[in-house]
Each structure stands twice: as C-alpha cells, then as structure tokens.
Amino acid sequence: MDRLYILIVHALDNDNTMREEAEITINVEDENDNSPVFSTASQSIYCDENLGMGQTCGKVIAIDADQGNAGDVEYKLPGAQETWYRNDGSIENRNLGLFEIDAVTGEVRLTKSGKQTDFDREKYTKVEIVVTANDAPGKMANTGLVEQKVEIYLNDVNDNAVRVVEYPGQGI
C-alpha cells in the first residue's frame, strides 16, 4: 500500500524569526518484493472423467501481497509433461498436453475431450501437472516464478454400460 507523508519545514534565522516555510510531500510506493503464494486448495482439483473439450476442470489461486499492479499474477503450464497414476499403482510420465490454464483466472481446462483420451477413472486415479505463477507480468519484479504441483483427481462417472456375464452351469 502506498503511503503519503506531508512535512512542513520551517527555516528560521538566528533570532528564531521564521524566514521560509515549505511543504514537502513524500510518497512511499510499494516495492514489488512479494512472491505469489499458491493456496492450499490449489494443490488438488477434482474433475469428472467425462468432461468435454474446453470445459473447466478446476481452478488454482496464487495470492501476491503486493499492492496494485505489483500484486497481479499470471498463470502458465511450463510444459505438457503430465504424471499419470494408474489404479494398479504404477506411474506413467506422458506428454499429452491435455490441459491448458487461463493466464488471468487460473482456470484449468481440458484441451481434448476426456473421451478422446485415457482420462478414464477405470484406468487412472489422478494426473499431476505443474503450474507456475509469475509475479506482476510485464512489470519490474524482484521475485521469480513460483511452481506448484497440482493433482487432478478423476471422478468416476457412470459411463460404462452394464454387461451381463453368463457363467457356465449357473444360468442367469
């Protein structure tokens, strides 16, 4: 927050007679010295497995304590690298570029429909991506990028048709 101070200076001669008076205004401006901090809620997003292309999956939030434009934050995905966690416990590093982020709002969206990809709760429990928050984009900042791992948990949706399986000798 900028602070404004007004000082009145009196100049006196040897016998304490006032000779001059001047008003001095001092404006102390906020320096862009705080890094953005991701909220705890930004660490986990829950997303339905049947989400369509371009739909919002969730949102990340980073707060910068600086005032005015110095408190602006810009979000990015530094790469398309995704870590996929399978139901069987195995982990896969993939480069599908399945997610995009709105630079201003922090909304995470799918670039492809969940049905077009392996974005399937029957196969995977979650996907991990990395999001960056840039302090005061396009302005002089004394801080750098801040990274946050975001776990996107897949919500199971009733998307599989019922199959009737006949077991020999038991009938249906």
Topology summary:
Elements (H helix, E strand, L loop, with lengths): L2 E10 L5 E11 L8 E2 L5 E5 L7 E4 L2 E2 L9 E4 L5 E5 L4 E4 L4 E3 L5 E4 L13 E12 L10 E10 L17
Parallel strand pairs: 4-13
Antiparallel strand pairs: 1-2, 3-6, 5-11, 7-12, 8-9, 8-12, 10-11, 12-13
How would you describe this protein?
By secondary structure, this protein is mainly beta. It has strands at about 5-10, 20-30, 35-40, 45-50, 55-60, 60-65, 75, 80-85, 90-95, 100, 105-110, 125-135, 145-155. The chain has one domain (about 30-155): Immunoglobulin-like (Sandwich), CATH 2.60.40.60. Strand 1 and strand 2 (about 20-30) form a beta hairpin. The protein is rod-shaped and about 120 Å long. The N and C termini lie far apart (about 75 Å). The mean pLDDT is about 85.
- In round numbers, the mean pLDDT is 84
Strand tally, please? Answer: 13
Which CATH C-level class is it? Mainly Beta
Shape: rod-shaped
Residue fraction in strands: 35-45%
What attributes does this structure have?
172 residues; mainly beta; Immunoglobulin-like; six-stranded mixed β-sheet; rod-shaped
Sum this structure up briefly:
This protein has 172 residues and is mostly beta strands. Helix content is 0%, strand content 44%.
